[in-house]
Design brief:
By secondary structure, the protein is an alpha/beta fold. Helices cover 37% and strands 20% of the residues. Helix 13 (340-346) links the parallel strand 13 and strand 14 (352-354). Helix 9 packs across helix 14 (356-369) and helix 11 (286-297) runs parallel beside helix 12 (314-322).
Length: 371
């Protein structure tokens, strides 16, 4: 198995004491285009060594294992080497493993017939977990807990979720008027964007003008991501479908492998969604969406380019800026990857730079006050 990190794939370490179940998981995940198997381990001690050597992006681990329980190992791991982990169990509750620091949880299939569905859901959870930052555990261990024979792992701690600074009442007074006046909000992100977008979208009230989002994700995952956001946001969030009409309080997220463009007719704004060649290395492409917003909404548009690798969206945001839109770039300090916002800033595409926590509040304020 290759130890060279493929930037286009999520590298996974599979940990399970059952050689048969472990090999079955490895075989299923190996067939998925966005996943690469970094390695396998039969217990926590072997996993510890493999993590040091292979530097996987995501850990898939059984809860019940010999030598050390999966939850106990995860608690120690999160203190020393924060790593997204999907826990598998046939008996444990979801709450017990999430409290240990797991990024997500999945029930072990009860029969071979259930395995196909299990593996599809597991693959989705892996992709989502890989795009989210993780916390470092803050609870110190007791001396007894430390005396377990595990050699400490070295790591750079990733940044945890950032709560948004919510807009004040004065920031949102003009949102309904702006929505009726044809204002459109456009957001683009990539690596680290799933949590970053959640931070921004959770700051939006129900009166927000319509929002368009491109987040680099594969097919299927964008629908699950949209459904998750819809549950935690005041605005309505859904995966975009061709012909969807924009309306106040609605956020449309481009589907994986589909470009999304803003269009307008006598009835108002709608989106055109279509499969096509990659633009700026991606489909959906932030550049495609931003460029269409510039052409269709012009100075009635406002947008932000957020954390992500590469330069997708930089030229599109510049076009929006040149057409009179107000444009925000996420600042370096709050980005997981300061790539796309940096390229946009270098082009002169940003009206201003803002921290992740302030992007939503700033968008609301500028929409109310004008620019």
């Amino acid at each position: 198995m290759s130890t060279t990190k493929n930037k286009l794939k999520v590298r996974v370490l599979v940990v399970d004491d059952s050689a048969l179940f472990r090999s079955t998981i490895v075989q299923a995940l190996s067939s998925m285009p966005n996943i690469e198997i970094a390695g396998e381990a039969a217990d926590a001690f072997e996993a510890r060594d493999k993590i040091n050597d292979l530097k996987p992006d995501v850990l898939v681990m059984d809860v019940v294992m010999p030598k050390m329980d999966g939850r106990d190992f995860l608690r120690q791991l999160m203190e020393q080497y924060p790593l997204p982990c999907i826990m598998i169990s046939g008996t444990e509750s979801e709450e017990s493993v999430l409290e240990a620091g797991a990024a997500d949880f999945i029930k072990k299939p009860r029969s071979p017939a259930e395995f196909k569905t299990f593996s599809t859901i597991l693959g989705t959870k892996i992709i989502l977990a890989a795009s989210k930052p993780v916390y470092k555990a803050s609870k110190p261990r007791t001396a007894a807990e430390k005396d377990d024979g595990l050699v400490p792992l070295g790591s750079t701690v990733k940044t945890g979720k950032i709560p948004p600074n919510l807009p004040s009442p004065s920031d949102i007074t003009g949102l309904s008027r702006a929505a009726n006046d044809g204002i459109v909000v456009a957001l683009g992100a990539s690596t680290g964007g799933t949590d970053a977008l959640e931070c921004v979208l959770r700051s939006f009230p129900k009166t927000m003008p319509p929002v368009l989002v491109v987040q680099h994700m594969p097919p299927v995952f964008t629908k699950m991501y949209s459904e998750r956001l819809d549950k935690c946001c005041d605005i309505t969030v859904k995966e975009a479908e061709n012909g969807d009409r924009l309306r106040q309080g609605l956020c449309l997220i481009a589907a994986g492998s589909y470009h999304m463009e803003l269009k307008k007719d006598a009835q108002g704004y709608y989106v055109k969604c279509y499969q096509g060649e990659k633009v700026s290395g991606h489909c959906p492409s932030v550049d495609v969406m931003f460029s269409s917003v510039a052409d269709t909404a012009g100075k009635k548009a406002i947008g932000a380019i957020m954390t992500g690798m590469g330069a997708d969206g930089a030229k599109g945001l510049l076009k929006m800026h040149q057409k009179g839109a107000y444009t925000i770039g996420q600042d370096k300090e709050s980005c997981i990857v300061y790539g796309m916002p940096m390229e946009a800033y270098k082009l002169g595409a940003c009206s201003e730079q803002q921290s992740l926590a302030n992007i939503g509040k700033t968008l609301c304020r500028k929409i109310t006050e004008g620019w």
